[in-house]
Amino acid sequence: MSNFKKLFSLKLRTLIFGHPLSSQNAEEAKVGVGGGVPVFGSDIISSEGYAPDEILYVLLLAGTLGYAYILKISLVIVVLVISIFLVYRKAIQKYPEGGGSYTIAKAYLGENFGLIAGASLTLDYILTVAVSVSSAIENLTGIIPWLAPTEHKVIADCLVIMFMAWINLRGLKESARLFSIPVYLYIATLALLIGTGLVEIMVHGVTPTAVATGKLASSSVGGMTWFILARAFAGGTTALTGFEAVSNGVTAFKNPAQKKAIKTLLILAIIVSLGLIGLTYLAGAYHLVPAEGNTILNQLGLIIFGKSIPYFVLMGTAAAILVIASSTPYAGLPILLSLMARDGYTPRYFKNLGDRLVYSVGIWTLFIVSSLLIIVFHGDTHTMLPLYAIGVFISFTLTGAGLAKHTWKERGVNWQSDFVIFSFGGIVSFLVLLVFITTKFKQGAWIILLIMPLLVLMFRCIRYVYQGEIQNLEVTQEALEDFHRHVKKVKRRRSEAELADYKNKIIVPVYDLNLIVLKTLKYAYALTPQVTAVHIASDQSRTKKLLKHWTEHQIEISLEIVESPYRATVQDLLKYIDKVEKNGHFDTITVVIPEYVPEKLWHNILHNQTGQLMKLMLLFRKRILVTSVPYHPVPKKVLHADLNVNPKN
To answer: Which three-class secondary structure state does DSSP give residue 563?
Structure first.
């Protein structure tokens, strides 16, 4: 019956999430350029669709005069796109492990700026999911009236976010395969729209009337001002949100990863630049006026295509890509959090790969936090929109400034041109950031400026806790000498007994060599010489490090390495125990689990509780005994004093 349950649960899990992927097949789970565009570019591709609306909303405050400036604003944005492309190309070349703004800012501007970049990107990714999904659902309320009530809209938002999380938990390749068709279909239809519109204007010309609304925009006596131009430019730069995702996710690309990531970034820069110029030119030529429920894209579709198949394909894929845009954060944020976890700023379990070779904890976290955001803001896009885009321009600013500083310091070949490009990108991004903060502060931008320092403080607190634990658990010379003395003492006491006389086998699961493990091994060896330390090799770099330390410190207890190609630590340990149990040479088998007891209760959140899961799973094994050796952190001075006072213990 138990085997049937195991088989059923395995089949169900495989049906939902797919077959687990071996670490050796990591390259097969990665994406190429064709898959990288929909996975990492859906956010920026969807953003260019509503950028003309954001520009015109501001420019038309000056009346019909605004149409004369829309293309000029777009061209300046394209110059910024080129600059940011060159900035992130350099970032990818220098840091193939990814991390983008976080890595660059931390390396060249210092820890604080690195954490600010990490916090800003984290917030931006979370807001991208919430805003994209809520906007897509709002656009469907006209077609599906059931979605109109707030409660129904919130439920639909959360279900869509859950669906996106599920697709991404199945792996990058799976999401790339699913999202490629609507993304590429949208790009092709948008290109057809712009191309047809340009040909129509060149052949037949156009009467500059507000075709879509039936009226011309009214003139303004005040005319154009620099502040209006700055606001319009800042609004148009929303077309750049999501640009940094490729530099964060370099490790998700197939080899040569850097070249493919740069090629993907270049393709996205070209799509955004041409799309933005084409849409804004047509909007200006037709004197379109954006309105709620009637976007520039919709108006152009009706004018150029009419209510034909291309129009419905364009608007259908435009709605779909708003949802798909939330896939970019699901690809980017988990990788960012994994890099920060390796540096000790986020909980360590964020760096663990799941069954499908994605950082599943990061995906689950994004799903939970973005769903909570939807619930708190009742799924209202207009309430969340002022919070959006600030984070991404903080990261643009820090990346440009960091690379400019590094270029100025190194002054290598052709450094002057690089310095100008990086400085331009950083300075313009900073000016856009100031415009966003100034114009949207009262609308809710102050929330981001409040939450960001709190996030930075949280990152610092996590690192402080981990550093304290590392110092407390680090193997000292005194502790090693005490361990070796203990082993020699026990060996002398057992010198006349045969090893075969001991029928109690003890298995000690170990992840690293530290004071917890030494204490546990001392306890186990005092009971029986039949002790084996077992390491589940889910991370090859960690395994090599452990073997090196074990050999260097001449630990007398044998260490057995159990390969874990699917990174299933607990399951592989249970299989090893089953193997030992089947040998039948022992009367009892005891699993002794080293257990760290944090100083404060909330510190438990920073640990993945694998030991607790092991104990829970072993409770169902009738012939296996389980015990744990708790280790309470002791300040190093106290520990040294205790070892010196009691050298024989």
So the answer is: strand
